[in-house]
């Protein structure tokens, strides 16, 4: 049954102000790109989005956890399978730690296969002493420090589509083709992680999982027949920022007649584009995917409840994920009133903690970074707020990579300020490296048990 409002269409957002859209220099070229995308296959299917909706519904009702993680922004230069495989390994490791530690299913969602466009607080940035238009992601322009290279080029949207397709194809192969089989749990521990304290702890956990499986086998359970041990679902997500990309990939499901954004399983609305009367909220009100909304420290209870009413009028558990990013110092004060107001509204939501985006700062030498301790402090505050109010801390939303980068400070094998330039590779925000990510998963599992 179609439930979309009669005035809604994939293009109805066009009548409203759309924040954070690139200044495309040529409207005709952009329209031609939209037309081409309209003729291309969907990247994901409505039935998959519904399966994720069901999984998130379990999170909303306190029976599962959400782990959403990946790059701040994907790069057109990372086309090889290796960084994708490494990212997946960390996600599988973190998920094993959380599933085993909390004895709960973990819904795994990557910021992957389409996370290409960035909102920016300022229109310009200084690179090597030169003022340039701020970098808005590879589907918009090149990150080169050159004014001509920063002119938005709609052809890049098409390139983003193809890279998303190729990334998603690889993810499907890895997750369904044996790589994510639970019997491979040891092989996900990577060399530079294995030697760390979190890596060693992971080895022990992998041994325990092995023993638990052997025990089940010995009890007569046919493990080979248990599909859920041999395949996993890793869903894709990105910020649904570029509406000229989302609109042509929005398709009507032949089974239900409902519209789905077929660029990813889940999409979220960023902190900078969540105005109730803005284009993004209009667009996402009409698609039936699970969606998220980022909530920063300025979000008011009335605003949040209005977003819930607008985006989840049918009160479907799993439809809406509220991703709070309040800051380590303020989460304990700012989150409880929002938790109470949403509970009183009776609208079911998943509450996720993004402990990254309100804890960014620049070092004295100007490097954008985050402290592992602040990230953990915000997660602890998020759990404390839920405990105090009696709501379910549904999960975490993180910026991570599978590589041994030095972008965030601290962790058990601490990255020091003077080491930041060793491997600082992100195109936008600093990510936790694989060791820091695994360390974090163990600590979150402890909070779940605590
Ligand atoms: C992001 O997730 O990379 C981002 C820009 O987040 P926010 O909208 O919360 O600032
Ligand atoms: Mn970011």
From TrEMBL:
<feature type="binding site">
    <location>
        <position position="429"/>
    </location>
    <ligand>
        <name>Mn(2+)</name>
    </ligand>
</feature>
<comment type="pathway">
    <text>Metabolic intermediate biosynthesis; chorismate biosynthesis; chorismate from D-erythrose 4-phosphate and phosphoenolpyruvate: step 1/7.</text>
</comment>
<protein>
    <recommendedName>
        <fullName>Phospho-2-dehydro-3-deoxyheptonate aldolase</fullName>
        <ecNumber>2.5.1.54</ecNumber>
    </recommendedName>
</protein>
<dbReference type="GO" id="GO:0009073">
    <property type="term" value="P:aromatic amino acid family biosynthetic process"/>
</dbReference>
<keyword id="KW-0808">Transferase</keyword>
<keyword id="KW-0104">Cadmium</keyword>
<feature type="binding site">
    <location>
        <position position="294"/>
    </location>
    <ligand>
        <name>phosphoenolpyruvate</name>
    </ligand>
</feature>
<feature type="binding site">
    <location>
        <position position="111"/>
    </location>
    <ligand>
        <name>phosphoenolpyruvate</name>
    </ligand>
</feature>
<dbReference type="GO" id="GO:0003849">
    <property type="term" value="F:3-deoxy-7-phosphoheptulonate synthase activity"/>
</dbReference>
<dbReference type="InterPro" id="IPR013785">
    <property type="entry name" value="Aldolase_TIM"/>
</dbReference>
<feature type="binding site">
    <location>
        <position position="325"/>
    </location>
    <ligand>
        <name>phosphoenolpyruvate</name>
    </ligand>
</feature>
<keyword id="KW-0028">Amino-acid biosynthesis</keyword>
<comment type="similarity">
    <text>Belongs to the class-II DAHP synthase family.</text>
</comment>
<feature type="binding site">
    <location>
        <position position="72"/>
    </location>
    <ligand>
        <name>Mn(2+)</name>
    </ligand>
</feature>
<feature type="binding site">
    <location>
        <begin position="271"/>
        <end position="272"/>
    </location>
    <ligand>
        <name>phosphoenolpyruvate</name>
    </ligand>
</feature>
<dbReference type="GO" id="GO:0008652">
    <property type="term" value="P:amino acid biosynthetic process"/>
</dbReference>
<keyword id="KW-0057">Aromatic amino acid biosynthesis</keyword>
<feature type="binding site">
    <location>
        <position position="357"/>
    </location>
    <ligand>
        <name>Mn(2+)</name>
    </ligand>
</feature>
<dbReference type="Pfam" id="PF01474">
    <property type="entry name" value="DAHP_synth_2"/>
</dbReference>
<feature type="binding site">
    <location>
        <position position="399"/>
    </location>
    <ligand>
        <name>Mn(2+)</name>
    </ligand>
</feature>
<keyword id="KW-0170">Cobalt</keyword>
<dbReference type="GO" id="GO:0009423">
    <property type="term" value="P:chorismate biosynthetic process"/>
</dbReference>
<dbReference type="InterPro" id="IPR002480">
    <property type="entry name" value="DAHP_synth_2"/>
</dbReference>
<keyword id="KW-0464">Manganese</keyword>
